[in-house]
Amino acid sequence: MIKVIEFAFRLRTIWAVFLALFVGGIMIAAAGHNPFTAYGALFHGAFIDYYGLGATLVKMSPILLAGLAVIIPLRAGLFNIGGEGQIYMGALCSTGVALYVTGLPDLAHFALVIVAGCIGGGLWALIPAILKAYRGINEVIVTILMNYVAINLVSYFVSGPMMQEGAPYPYSPEIDDHLFLSWIMPGTDVHTGIIMGLLLSFTFWFILKYSSVGIGWSTVGHNPVAAKYAGINVKRQILISMFVGGAVAGLAGTIEVIGLKYRLFHLFSPGYGYDGIVVAFLAGLNPIFLPFATLFLSGLKAGANVMQRAIGLESTIIEAIQGLVIIFTAASLALKFNKPFWERFLNRKEAPSTVKGDSKNV
Amino acid sequence: MFDFLFNISQLTDFMGTGFRLSIPIAFAALGGVLSERAGVYNIGLEGCVLSGAFGGAVGAVITGTPWGGVVFALLFAGMAGVVLATLSVLMRVNQIVAGIAINILMLGFTSYFARVFFPDGTASQNISGFKTFEIPLLSKIPILGQPLFNQDILFYSIYLLVPMAWWVMYRTPWGLQIRAIGEYPRAADTAGISVLKTRFVVVVISCALAGLGGAYIVLSQVFVFTENMSAGKGFVALAALILGRWNPIGALMAAVFFGFADALQLRMQFSSPDVPYQFFAMLPYVASILALIVFAGKVKPPAALGLDFIRSGK
Amino acid sequence: MKHQFFKGLRIAAGMAALAVPQIAIAQDDVKFAIVMPGVITDNSFNQAGYEGALAASEALGLEMAYSEKVAQPDQPEALADYARRGYNVVIGHGSEFSDSVQRVAKRNPDTSFLIVNGSEATGNISTVGYNYRHLAYGLGLIAGEMSKTGTGGFVGAQQIPFSTNLLEGYTAGFLAANPDGKVLSAWTSDWDDVAKGKEATLNLISQGADMIFPTMDNATIGSLQAMQEQGVQGFGIYYDAIEDWPDTILQSAIFDLSGAMTAVLSNIEDGKLPSKAYEFGFETPEAARFGTFHGDVSADVQDAVNAAIAGMVAGEINP
Questions:
Q1: Phi/psi of residue A125, nearest 5 degrees
Q2: Beta strand pairing status for B133-134 and B150-151?
Q3: Which residues form the ABC transporter substrate-binding protein PnrA-like domain (chain C) (predicted)?
Q4: Does B296 touch chain A (CB under 8 A)?
Q5: Is B41 helix (H, G, I), strand (E, B) or coil?
Q6: CA atoms of A352 and B152, how far apart (whole Å)
Q7: Sheet containing C89-92: which strands, arranged edge to edge?
C-alpha cells in the first residue's frame, strides 16, 4: 500500500496539472463553454495536430534556451532574471552583424551572426555579474532593471537607425536568406533552433554534472567560502557562469531572428526570458528534464491560442489557467514525500478502533 | 532643456506629476521592504498592485464610495498575499517562481473578472474616486505646497504609513522579530519566534500594501480599471526598495526618485523632441542601476533573503 | 487614391451603398477572421476593429472569428491557423501585422489577407487604411481656430506612420488656421498605460497647449481625464467621443471600421478578396467622417471646416 501511495506521489506534478485544469474548467464553464471541448481543443491543438505541434515547437525553441540561461548561472549561485534583456541584446547584435557585415562567405557570415548573438547576450549578462562579484550588488534586481533598458534599446534601434525604410511598424530590414535556419517540419515554422536547444540541454547536463567546470560552479553556488579555500577563483566563476548563461539567452534571441522572423522587431519577445525561469524550476533546475518542462509550457501556450481560435474562448481565461497551472505544479514540486506520516496513517486505518476524526488531526 | 525648472507654475506641475507617479511605487516598495526584511522576496508585488487596482474599481462601483474601493483593494491584494505566502513560506516553493506565478495568475484573473464586472470595457465604469483637498497653511508653502499638500487622502496616507512602518520596524518587538528572521532565522527560532507564522503574516501585509498602490492608480489617478494597468510598477518598486536600502524611509525616497525620473522623461520629450523617447524611457532604470553602483557596499540585503527556513530535526 | 468602388459608393450614398454588397454575397459559407494585437474592450483601435468585424459579419451574413491580444511572435501562427481552418479572408488588425501577413500569405495562396493600416497590397494581400492626414487636418483646423494660447497638443504612443500621419495632418490644419501657432507632441511609448496618458497630457497643458488630440488605445482615457480636470478641450478618435465626454470633446475623427470592413468585405467574390489598397477618407463618409460638433464651436468655424473638408474631397486641399 505504501508503495502505491509513494508511486502516486511521484506523479504529483500530473495531479497538480489536473487540479489546475479542474479549477480552470470551472471558470470555462462559468464563461458558458464546455470545459471538455475546450481542453480537447487545447490538447489536440498543442500536441496531436501537425501544425499545432509545429506551433508548440516554435515556441519551445527560445524558451528552452532561456531556461538554460537560468539554470547555468544558478549553479554558481546567481539568479538570472535578465534572460529577457539578454534575448533582446543577442537579437540586436546578431541582426546588426547579419545586416551590416558583408563580403564574407555565407558559412562564415552565419557563424559570425551566431557568435555575435551569444556575445551580445553574454556581455549584457556580464554587467550584473561584475557588479555582483566586485561590488556585491544583488544580481536579481540589476538583471530585472537591465531588461527594461535592453527592450528600449532595441526599440530605439528598430525605430531609428536600423528601421526598414517606409516600414509601417518599427522593424529592421530583412536579413539575407543564406542566414535562415532551415525548416524541419514542412509547412510549419519549426526550424533547427529546436535542435540546437536540445543539444545544448544535453551538453550542459553533461558539463554541469561531470566536468570540473560544472562541479566548480556547484561548489561556488553552495558555499562560496569553502570554494575559496578550495582554491577556486569565486569571482571568475561567477563571471563565467553568468556570461555563458547570457550567451545562451542571446542565442535564443538570435534564433528568433534567423529562424522565425528574419527581421528584428520592436517588442519581439513576449516574455520568453521570464518563461525560462518558470521552466527551469519546473525541470527541477536539471537540464535533462528541461526539454520536457518546456514542451509542457509551450504546449500550454500554443494550445491555449488554439483553444481561443477554435471555440472563441476569451484570452483572459487562458492566462488565468496558465497561472493556475504554474502555481499548482510549482507547489507540487515543493512537496516532499512524508513516508512516516503515511505509514502512521495506514496503520491507523487498519486499526478500526481509532476514530475517523483522529486521522484528520495528524 | 531644463527651462521649466525656472518657471514656478511649470515647476509645481512637474513636481505634482512626479509625486503622483511615485505614490503607487511607494506603496508597493513599502510592502516589499516589509517582506524582504523578513527574508522573503516578493516578486509578486506587480500582481498585487494589479489586484489592488481591480479591487479598488470593483469596490468603488459596488459600494458607490472610494472607501469601499480601498477595502476591496486590501482584500483582493491580501488574498493574493495569502496564496503567495502559502506557496513561498509554507510550501517553500522558490520565492521568485512563486512571485512570477502570482503575477501571471493575477493578470489572468483580473482581466477575466474585469470583463465579467465591466462588460462594456472602460465605458461602463463609473468609479467615484477620491477628491483632492488642500491642507491649510501647508499648501501655501511656495513651490512644494501645492504638489505635496493639495492631494487626496490616499496620497496623504503615505505620510502616516511610512513613519509608522519605520517605527514598527525599528522600535517595536514585532519589528525586531521581523528583522531577526530576515537576518538569522535559526537564532530567531531558537529564541522562540515562529519564523513561518511571522513570515506568512508579513507577506500578506506586504501584498495588501502593494494593493493600496493599485487602489491609488484607480481611485485617485485615472478612475478606470484597464487590463494590465499596473504596467511594471511592481517591478520598479523592487528596484526602489533596494535603492532605499530595505528601509521604509529610504524606499519612499527612492520611489519619489523613480516618479520624478518618469515625470522628467515625459517632460523632456517636449523640450528635446529630437532625442528618441526610448532614451528617456530607460532613464529611470539606468539611473537606479547607477545609484546601486554608487551606494554599493553600503547596501546590505537581509542575510537570509530568499532562503527557505526549515526547522532542523527534533 | 480613387477607385471605381468608391465612386460607386459615393453615388449610391448611405444605406443604399450597404445594400449593394448583400446581393453580391450570394455564395454561402464564406468565413473571415480578425487577429488583433490588443484587447477588444479598449474603447479604441482594437474595440473598433472587433465591432467593425462584427458589424460586417452581420451586414454581409459572413461567419466571423477573432483572436485578441496576439503577441508579436504569435502572429504568423494565428494567421496561418485561420487560413488552414478554411477561413476565406484573414485580417491582421494593425500595421504591425504587415510582415507576418506577407510571410503567411506566401504559404497560403488560396486565402485572402487584409492588413488594417498596411502599406503594400500585392498577390493575395489587400490593405485597408484611412486618409489619416485628412481627418487630422480637419481637427487641426478647429484647434487652430479655437485655441486661445496658440498652442495645440498631440499625444501619441509610438512614432509609427499611423501616428505621424495624424500628427502631421493635425499640425498642418492647426497652422493653416493659425500660422503663428505651434503644436507640441508627446509620445508615451505605451498604448495602454492610462496614468502615463494622463500625465503626458497634463504636461502638454502646463506647456500652454489648450487643444489636445490624444491618439493612443486605452491610454486615451487618461488624456481625456486630464483635459476634463484642467478644463481644456480637444478631440476624440474612432467614435463620436462627445457621447462620453460632453464638456471636453469639440469634435471626433470617426474611423468607422464597421463601414470600412463592410465595404471591403463586400468585394469578396468566390470566397476571395481581390487584392487592392482600400483607402477611406472624407469621400467615403460611411467609413470615415466627423462626429458631432461641440456647442462651443462657432458656426463660422464649422463652415470653415466643412469647406476644407469639401476642398480635400475635391482634391483642392492636400495637407
A1: -75, -25
A2: antiparallel
A3: 31-272
A4: yes
A5: coil
A6: 65
A7: C63-67, C31-35, C89-92, C112-116, C125-130, C277-280
- Tell me which residue in A58, A266, A309 faces C78 most closely, judged by beta carbons: A309
* Whether B2 contacts chain C with CB within 8 A: no
According to the model, what pLDDT value does residue C18 have?
38
Cβ–Cβ contact A55 with C under 8 A: yes
pLDDT tens by residue, B242-259: 778 889 999 999 999 889
Would you place residue C49 in the very low, low, confident or very high pLDDT band (cuts 50, 70, 90)?
A: very high
Q: Decide: A295 and A303 in contact? Cβ < 8 Å.
A: no
- The CATH number that applies at residue B98 is 1.10.3470
C111 shares a domain with C92: yes
Q: Do C194 and B221 touch (CB under 8 A)?
A: yes
ipTM of the complex: 0.84
Q: How far apart are CA C90 and CA B105, in angstroms?
A: 31
Chain B partners of C225 at a C-beta cutoff of 8 Å? 222-223
Please tell me the distance in Å from A219's CA to the nearest CA on chain C: 39
Q: Which of B270-274, C24-28, C266-270 has the lowest mean pLDDT?
A: C24-28
Residue C22 banded pLDDT, cuts 50, 70, 90: very low
Looking only at the bridges linking them, the beta strands covering C182-187 and C151-156 are parallel
Contact at 8 Å (CB) between C255 and C235?
A: no
- B313: in domain: no
Q: Is the pLDDT of residue C23 over 60?
A: no
Instruction: Provide the number of CB pairs (under 8 Å) joining chain B to chain C.
Output: 90
Range in A189-203, B111-125, C271-285 with the lowest mean pLDDT: B111-125
C258 lies within 8 A of chain B by CB: no
Alpha carbons A44 and C295: distance in angstroms, whole number: 58
Instruction: For residue C107, give the CATH number of its domain.
Output: 3.40.50.2300
Contact C72 A263 (CB under 8 A): no
- pLDDT at position C196 is 84
Q: Are residues C299 and C164 in the same domain?
A: yes
pLDDT-flagged residues of chain A (< 70):
349-362
In a domain, B300, yes or no: no
Q: Does the residue B307 lie in any domain?
A: no
Residue C307 pLDDT > 50:
yes
Chain centroid, CA A238 distance in Å:
21
Helix (H) or strand (E) holding C129: strand C125-130
Using CA atoms in the order A95, A101, A104, A106, what is the torsion angle rounded to 10 degrees?
20
Q: Confidence band (pLDDT; 50, 70, 90) for C6?
A: very low
Segment (H or E) for A61? helix A50-75
To test the contact with chain B by mutation, choose from A149, A155, A329 the residue with the greatest count of B C-beta atoms within 10 A, namely A149
Give residue C17's pLDDT. 37
Structural domain tally of chain B?
Answer: 1
Under the banding of pLDDT at 50, 70 and 90, the label for residue C7 is very low
Asked if C73 lies within 8 A of A256 by C-beta distance, the reply is yes
Q: Which domain does C72 fall in, by range?
A: 4-131+256-280
Together in a domain, C143 and C247: yes
A305 to chain C, any CB pair closer than 8 A? The answer is yes
More confident position, C143 or B260: C143
Give the whole-angstrom CA distance, residue C229 versus residue C225.
6
At A183 the three-state DSSP class reads strand
pLDDT value, residue A350: 62
What pLDDT was estimated at residue B3? Answer: 67
Q: Residues of A with CB below 8 A from B285's CB?
A: 145-146, 148-149
Indicate whether C11 and C116 sit together in one domain.
Answer: yes
Interface with chain B: mutation pick from C39, C40, C41, highest number of B CBs within 10 Å: C41
- The pLDDT of residue B265 is 77
Q: Which residues of A touch C74 (CB under 8 A)?
A: 270, 305
C-beta atoms of C189 and A155 within 8 A? yes
| In-domain check, residue B283 | yes
